[in-house]
Amino acid sequence: MKLVKAIVGANWGDEGKGKITDVFAAESDFVIRFQGGSNAGHTIINSYGKFALHQIPSGVFHGHITNIIGNGVALNADNLEKEVNELVERKVPRPKLYVSERTQLVMPYHILFDKYEEERLAGKSFGSTKSGIAPFYSDKYAKIGFQVSELYDESYLKEKLKTVLELKNVILEHLYHKPTLSFDEVWEQLLKWRDILEPYRTNVFSLLSNAVKEDKNILLEGQLGSLKDTDFGIYPMVTSSSTLAGFGAVGAGIPPWAIKEIVAVTKAYSSAVGAGEFVSEIFGETGDELRRRGGDGGEYGATTGRPRRMGWFDCVATRYGCIAQGATNVAITCLDVLSYLDEIPVCVAYELDGKESRDFPVTCELGKAKPVLQKLKGWGTDIRGIKSYEDLPANARAYVEFIEEQIGYRIGIVSNGPGRDDIIYRR
Ligand code: GDP
Question: What is the pTM assigned to this prediction?
Answer without folding.
Answer: 0.94
